[in-house]
Amino acid sequence: QLAGLAVIAFGLWLRFGGVMADFASDKKSPEYFFMGLYVLVGTGAVMATVGFFGCCGAARESQCLLGAFFACLLVIFAAEVTAGVFAFLGKTVAIQEAQKIYEDIYEDYMKNPGGKVNRTIYRYHLALQCCGKDNVEQQMGLPCPENIQMPKASNCLVEIQNVIDADLHLVGIVGIAIAGIAIFGMIFSMVLCCAIRNTRDMI
After folding, report:
1. Buried b (16+ CB within 10 A) or exposed e, 142-152
2. What gap in Å lies between CA 110 and CA 56, rounded to an integer?
3. In which element (H, E) is residue 152 found?
4. What is the CB neighbour count within 10 angstroms for residue 97?
5. Would you say 99 and 133 are in contact if contact means Cβ atoms under 8 Å apart?
6. CA atoms within 13 A on the CB side of 171
7. pLDDT 10s per residue in the chain (203 long)?
8. Phi/psi class of residue 26: alpha, beta or left (left: φ > 0; alpha: ψ in -120 to 50)?
9. Do residues 87 and 102 touch, judged by C-beta distance below 8 A?
10. Dihedral of alpha carbons 193, 195, 198, 203, sign
11. How many domains is the chain built from?
């Protein structure tokens, strides 16, 4: 249950907090990346629910509930493996989508520097700590945050790739941890189920 709640909190933090929240607040957003986060949150909710029924099965020494607990953990394990493969294969697409969003905003700003997009592009620059698409963009009047390190943080396309790479790396670590917890849960549930059966046979 605690692991499930932790996964829910982690997925919601990645979705609504940090840099990716700025992309999500725009009309366009890297849905391919967020789709993986929705799967992560859903898995956490299922884990918390399954954990509750597993506790009930252990407390009541119910073989039926423990068997259902084992089956649910097996499904969660398969879902985590699938999500991990999905995240690995979809990383390039997610990066390209996020970079395309920034490039569209950049082009809109260049066409109309005084429009509403001025606030949007500044929000992205502030969140990513970057400015423009190459080293000379600082001289073209872009709304850039103060005290950013130039030229290292001047290319926002590179920073977007770094952020998504780091986030997906964290998602992968969490997925492996969930899979490990599921394996131990399945082992212990079967051991307990067999122990209950043996005890009843002896009685």
Report:
1. bbbeeebeeee
2. 61
3. none
4. 20
5. no
6. 32
7. 787 888 788 778 777 776 666 665 555 555 656 666 677 788 788 888 888 878 887 787 777 888 888 888 888 888 777 767 766 777 787 788 888 888 888 888 888 776 666 777 887 887 787 887 765 545 456 777 777 666 555 688 888 888 888 877 777 777 777 778 888 888 888 888 888 777 766 65
8. beta
9. no
10. negative
11. 1
Task: Give domain status of residue 87, yes or no.
Answer: yes
Is the sign of the CA dihedral 25, 17, 19, 97 positive or negative?
Answer: negative
What does the alpha-carbon distance between residue 173 and residue 178 come to, in Å, rounded to a whole number? 9
Distance CA 167, CA 178 (A): 17
Pull the structure tokens for residue 190.
């079967």
> Does any domain span residue 12?
no
- Residue-number span of the structural domain to which 108 is assigned: 61-202
